[in-house]
Amino acid sequence: MRRKLAAGNWKMNGLRASLKELEKLKDEHPDPGCDILICPPATLLAPAVDMCWSSPLFVGGQTCHHKLAGPHTGDISAEMLRDVGATAVILGHSERRADHGETSEEVRLLAQAAQEVGLTTIICVGESEFQREATNTLDIIGGQLSLSIPDGSNGENLVVAYEPVWAIGTGQVPTADQIGEVHDFMRDRLENRFGYGVGKSVRLLYGGSVKASNADEIFAISNVDGALVGGASLKAADFAPIITALE
Ligand code: PEP
């Protein structure tokens, strides 16, 4: 039985004052029926972990380096994330792939480093609008899954987020059939590669313009085990109803 997961990606948003949103989430969901993960910017990781200590809220990073330490100015290692108290890290988000040229092969190296120190890796995959229009979606997703996910992944250290690039921050959401098709395909691929039991245990999130008004419909789709939420995770008032829809 896969426990549902509501993950919030704050991206490059949030100052210390924003941490009050975590207090509100804790108040609203003292005993949630799903996992809740917040991935704030690196500057807020330490205070967020302090604030969420002994609460049901988990804290995660938004990327990491593939090396554990060394001369890489501005980067953060998986070990540093672990050391500060993060339990998970988002990897291969389409914004990282676009802004920093991250390839799927590189994402796999980051994921290996993160899994080695005990972090849960949330590996993002998704097609562009052009690729969907060219009916290449499943080929693109299949390729990203094969190349980005390390061998040895399992239901503890891997979560996959399907995030169509054209749906992120745009208000456009795929149809339930389109989401279902990709999620069923991803489940199939994971079962084929890792075996039925392991493949079945990996949580599959949908991400892209999830909000309170569409959460119920998205969470009813087969093989959707939760959501990776950007904009609507910044305010507790927007994120809390999404969590409730998942519980
Ligand atoms: C995201 O960036 O992971 C995301 C899904 O963003 P939004 O919810 O704002 O579309």
From TrEMBL:
Annotated localization: Cytoplasm
State the superkingdom.
Answer: Bacteria
Coiled-coil blocks: none
User: Which EC number applies?
Assistant: 5.3.1.1
Q: Which residues bind substrate?
A: N9, W10, K11, G169, S209, G230, G231
- Keywords in alphabetical order: Cytoplasm, Gluconeogenesis, Glycolysis, Isomerase
Which GO terms of the molecular function aspect are on file?
triose-phosphate isomerase activity
- UniProt subunit comment: Homodimer.
Which PANTHER family is this protein grouped with?
TRIOSEPHOSPHATE ISOMERASE (PTHR21139)
Family indicated by similarity: Belongs to the triosephosphate isomerase family.
Q: Which NCBIfam families match?
A: tim
Q: What is this protein called?
A: Triosephosphate isomerase
Tell me which species this is from. Pseudooceanicola marinus
